[in-house]
Task: inverse folding
């Protein structure tokens, strides 16, 4: 059976995994441990600004059911890397702690380069397309 990948940029929905919190500079600070969000979290998060502009969530990669799917891979991380955002993010000497890396679609596709770019990707709630901070 094929490994079930996780998309590191999904909407705020019950059962999603909280990947991290978006800081004031637009970068994501990763949660130390995996935490699934519940209906109460979703309700509270939706009271303020769009939850996706304040938090990053992960969930099951739906491949062809996602408009970001290119037919064989996720187009989001490819676009982010093509735009050079990984270099701008300046990768630390060691990979940041990440609760989903072992199942992450982006890491599986692009390895450490995906980890370098990941902190600057913020999911846009208006059109559900992930966008990089400052782009």
Result:
């Amino acid at each position: 059976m094929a490994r079930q990948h996780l998309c590191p940029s999904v909407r705020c929905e019950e059962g999603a995994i909280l990947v991290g919190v978006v800081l004031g500079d637009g970068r994501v600070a990763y949660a130390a441990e995996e935490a699934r969000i519940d209906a109460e979290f979703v309700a509270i998060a939706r009271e303020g600004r769009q939850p996706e502009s304040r938090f990053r969530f992960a969930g099951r990669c739906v491949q062809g059911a996602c408009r970001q799917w290119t037919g064989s891979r996720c187009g989001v991380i490819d676009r982010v890397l093509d735009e050079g955002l990984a270099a701008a993010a300046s990768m630390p000497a060691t990979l940041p702690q990440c609760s989903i890396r072992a199942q992450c679609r982006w890491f599986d596709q692009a390895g450490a380069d995906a980890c370098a770019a990941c902190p600057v990707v913020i999911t846009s709630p208006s059109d559900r397309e992930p966008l990089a901070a400052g782009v």
Remarks:
- Residues 6-130 form one domain.
- Residues 20 and 30 are 4 Å apart (CA to CA).
- The helical segments are 39-45, 75-82, 85-89, 105-110, 112-117.
- The beta strands are 6-10, 17-22, 28-30, 55-60, 121-123, 130-132.
